[in-house]
User: Which sequence fits this backbone?
């Protein structure tokens, strides 16, 4: 059950980051807002930008991805809370989720049932992180080594530079190993290292 509580905490409790300073005698504790709250803030922020009286070309569009994700999580949490009879705190899926956890673990639950909930909660945390810190994208000037394209199309518009490299903002180990590349003309995917090698081979021939 601790795994389930950890998964609930990951969404609803402030993230605590420990930083050891210089001679390691001092620890500076940095806390960050809970993930679900950050997602909610992101929606409020983009809604207020949408409604502001700026010129049309200065308006930033509503972050519809964040909104969809928030609605999906809220409705699932509401269903769970109704199922467990734990009550729904309107507009606060974090508190609703914590209430659900307390009620849900009162009964004996099978391992599979718990694991399924943990998986869903981890999925939400990962989806929120992706929404808040989207991967860095960098397009490359080279033609695609697979299809040779120098341009690509989306919604009837033509764009140059079809190759794009995506890198995580917070790599777990090695940025290069965790970066991937895609050709937006032929949809071929590479690891960043693999693409670099292919481009080098092309340049030599
Ligand atoms: Zn291609």
Assistant:
């Amino acid at each position: 059950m601790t795994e389930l509580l950890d998964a609930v905490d990951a969404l609803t409790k402030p993230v605590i980051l420990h930083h050891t300073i210089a001679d390691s005698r001092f620890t500076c504790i940095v806390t960050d807002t809970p993930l679900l709250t950050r997602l909610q803030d992101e929606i409020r922020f983009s809604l207020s930008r949408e409604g502001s009286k700026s010129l049309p070309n200065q308006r930033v569009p509503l972050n519809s991805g964040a909104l969809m994700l928030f609605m999906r999580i809220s409705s699932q949490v509401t269903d769970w809370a109704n199922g467990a009879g734990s009550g729904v705190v309107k507009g606060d899926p974090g508190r609703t989720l914590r209430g659900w956890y307390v009620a849900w673990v009162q009964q004996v639950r099978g391992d599979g049932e718990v694991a399924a909930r943990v998986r869903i909660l981890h999925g939400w945390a990962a989806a929120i992180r992706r929404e808040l810190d989207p991967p860095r994208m960098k397009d490359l000037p080279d033609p695609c080594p697979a299809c040779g394209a120098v341009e690509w199309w989306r919604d009837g518009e033509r764009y140059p530079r079809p190759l794009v490299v995506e890198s995580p903002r917070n790599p777990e180990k090695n940025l290069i190993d965790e970066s991937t590349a895609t050709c937006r003309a032929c949809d071929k995917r590479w690891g960043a290292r693999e693409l670099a090698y292919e481009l080098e081979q092309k340049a030599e021939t």
In short: The CA atoms of residues 165 and 181 lie 4 Å apart. Confidence is low (pLDDT under 50) at residues 19-24.
